[in-house]
Amino acid sequence: MTTFRSPFSRRGFLQGAAALTGATALGGLPFGARAQALTELTVGFIYVGPRDDFGYNQAHAEGAAAVKAMAGVTVVEEENVPETMDVQKSMESMINLDGAALIFPTSFGYFDPHILELAGKYPEVRFEHCGGMWTKDKHPMNVGSYFGYIGMGQYLNGVAAGHASKTKKIGFVAAKPIPQVLLNINSFLLGARSVDPTITCQVIFTGEWSLAVKEAEATNALCDAGCDVITCHVDGPKVVIETAAGRGSFVCGYHANQSALAPELYLTGAEWNWAAVYTKMVETTMAGGVIDNFVRGGLADGFIKMSPLGPAVPEAGRKQFEAVQAEILKGGFAAIKGPLKDNTGAEIAAAGQSFLETDPALESMSYLVEGVIGSTS
Amino acid sequence: MAGDLGLWGIPVAIVGGAIRVSTPFLFVSLGEVLTERSGRINLGLEGTLVFGAMAGYGTAVLTGSAWAGVLVAALAGVVFGLVHGIICSLPKVNDIAVGIAMMLLGSGLAFYFGKPFIQPTAPDLPAIALGGWSDLPQVQAALNVNVLFLIGLALALVMAWMFRSTKVGLTLRVVGDSTDAARAMGLRPAVIRTLATAAGGAFAGVGGAYLSLYYPGSWNEAISSGQGLMAVALVIFARWNPVACFWAALLFGGAGALGPALQSVGVTKGYYLFYAAPYVLTLGVLIATSSTTRALSGAPGELSITK
């Protein structure tokens, strides 16, 4: 794993990075002559689970594989790194031993305090964190935040689910009640309610990102409660998909394409497309440029994609799915729009008010909308 | 399609959860009872469980037979048990330290060899539908009983009988209670303990195969989430009695199903607390059954934690 690198490219990068940081600090002045292209770059990827989990980590690893194929780029990867001091050790070894100048610690919990601590210690290294934690003026400039508007994917999942459900009850196995998860749950239900406003969504929180037995129990509990379409937001959806399909429920995927696990019952799925995002970020860095600190994108930007519709989606569902997808691709589509209440009766949006996918307010979501059976605490 | 059971969903879910989740607890704790009754502690069973899960799943993927997977998991458990047993037979070796080393080794090897098996899908172990009398799909699902669960129940009964009324059981108990007495009888404690540890390892391996081949039914590195360790603690809770192990395993499985079941009927507040139910339960029962006058009743005399 250890590669000894000539100091020249490193120094070149440092100069470039220093110039760029200076330029950004001065409010985006044109890059000086010292910003120069790199001929080689080592990029580190850190995953919280196994790389091939049919889920979150696999989606990132597919992105890393695309980066690996780029000329002049060396990729170092480490998987199963817990959100503890361990990730700091992994990052430091990538920086000091492998000479990584750009690191993607991909798990949500890596940010605070781990990335923040190392960002201060290694100002010349660029840290890119997946999730909405970075705040301007509060966090270091060599840390960036990127994420995709995958809530729209869950909205489309919901549209397919709304057409497939016969019990008018759909289920969601969720890990933790953080804003991204809540947005996914709400979007899933609102998508289904765009088909039939009487549909409800039962949510069960497992409390952890990866707990196979609890995920299976939660899925069984949802099936017992009469939910006949199930999706999830956990790191590895394999257990949920297999358990739900084993009970005869329809399933919608998340993170990656899980249709191979239940070809007949898989409706569609919201997938990440990190390959497009990562190659662009690495290209920017190689060209001597600097990655924006706040990178977001949705279906239209190629950050997310939908799995092909499965055979269980009826013709009417297919049509509506495609129409809504086209609407989202066009831009200006809002899943969260008034009149809308949360499931405790408090008003979220008045009639005529809407939150576009790009609205930063959605990144601090703390409620479940009316029709979701569950609570955030 | 499934109707809404309302609050009746909770007992159904707990019974179903108890049957689904308890089997690994049962096999690991039975294996540990066998080992500890011979006077040795094997904390490494968590590693054996994880390795068994991987070996069983891998074999089932490669051969297409879930039962071949169970067999290989058991054999892998025997190997781990033998290694533990033989190392602990050396003079001045602490079985707890070796157990921890074996736990880490087992998990590490399982992660290493298990890489190619995270993606593929293996055939499942068969289940027997005992819920056919009910027309409720929830009850039918809850009473889908896996064959290994029934085998585990039979094993618990056979082991209880073995300890009580057979020569093998007597031999194990003598070795476990007094090395000196065993030697005086002409027994070889080290050999017997090693064999007991190997058999215990086989049980734990089968427990692992249940995890990966039936419920939750796939191999990944977080599959066990500490169930092997809990099962070892469960042995103390069950006072080294195989039949009590069966009930304790059911209790743990049912308590684990409580959290999701409550959320599914709309009790959605405080789920972290419900998820702690199995541990609270353990503490409660241990306190309720503790005694100020006796040491741990039923504990084998040669066990390094009770000596």
Automatic annotation (TrEMBL), chain A:
PROSITE patterns reported for this sequence: TAT
Top-level taxon of origin: Bacteria
InterPro entries in the record: ABC-Purine-Binding, PnrA-like, TAT_signal, TAT_signal_bac_arc
Alphabetized UniProt keyword annotations: Signal
Cellular component, GO annotation: plasma membrane
Domain ABC transporter substrate-binding protein PnrA-like: 42-311
UniProt-recorded name of the protein: Nucleoside-binding protein
Originating species: Gemmobacter aquatilis
Lineage of origin: Bacteria, Pseudomonadati, Pseudomonadota, Alphaproteobacteria, Rhodobacterales
TrEMBL record, chain B:
Residue stretches spanning the membrane: 6-29, 41-60, 66-87, 96-114, 141-163, 190-213, 245-265, 271-289
Gene Ontology cellular component annotations, sorted alphabetically: plasma membrane
Keywords: Cell membrane, Membrane, Sugar transport, Transmembrane, Transmembrane helix, Transport
UniProt subcellular location: Cell membrane
Domain of life (superkingdom): Bacteria
Cross-referenced CDD domains: TM_PBP1_transp_TpRbsC_like
Ranges in a coiled coil: none
One annotated GO molecular function: transmembrane transporter activity
Pfam family, one: BPD_transp_2
Membrane topology: Multi-pass membrane protein
PANTHER family, sorted: ABC TRANSPORTER PERMEASE PROTEIN, SUGAR ABC TRANSPORTER INTEGRAL MEMBRANE PROTEIN-RELATED
InterPro entries named among the record's database cross-references: ABC_transp_permease
KW Amino-acid biosynthesis (keyword) present: no
Protein name in UniProt: Simple sugar transport system permease protein
